[in-house]
Amino acid sequence: GSFLPCGSSDRLEARIKMVRGPKKHLKRLNAPHHWMLDKLSGIFAPKPSPGPHKTRECLPLLLILRNRLKYAITGKEVQQILKQRLIKVDGKVKTDTTYPTGFMDVVEIEKTDEHFRLVYDTKGRFVVHRISKEEAAYKLCKVKKLATGKGGVPFIATHDGRTLRYPDPEVKVNDTVMLDIESGKIKDFVKFDLGNLAMVTGGHNAGRVGVIVHREKHKGSFEIVHIEDAAGNRFATRATNVFVIGKGNKPLISLPKGKGIRLTILQEQAKRYATA
Known about the structure:
The protein is built from four helices and 18 strands. By secondary structure, it is an alpha+beta fold.
């Protein structure tokens, strides 16, 4: 009863069939814009491996070593560096070229005694920010979920895919915990409260730093948080994009240049003329 000519129905089915397995490629034009890859020097971009950060919110190790720190010229050289077990992310040696490092991750190169933390600049791009050895001993993690596990053990899940058992009972969702990298234990925590310093990690205001001044709760919709930066500019963003980084107005991590204060186009122009 089919109107299709003989033999083409199974060919049609073969066409509808999906590809097996996960995607292994990423086209250059489809890569996240903040990686700052040019359009013309290749067809593909490094596809981040599955890991603690999302594809769109990470920076693969390859781009850190080749495009940011300039330790390699080609992807092959990056692989040679990594396979010598020279690079540590959050205290663990990583040999995967496309390992997804993300916000707050600490990258260490012991051979050169260098330590970096991935944070956003005021334009919402990742900056591989150089830090001291003391500061490289900890990182901040945002609490994504709080639950009780097997045997009634309370645990929290963080933004970088960690599960931390027996947290302080005061710690709730959206708060930030200070994690000692070596032991994996919580050293300190900061509540998601008015008057605390926060960095915006997504949306149009990504990379801006300021003090939380107001929270709007909308049932069944997105909570909106109003933030005021050190220059007195106010802006609003969704609560999911807000990452507390300090008690009061003192940050627990060092911030990259610009200190999270976004300049207007005219201020940027003036600054550029001053240096020229």
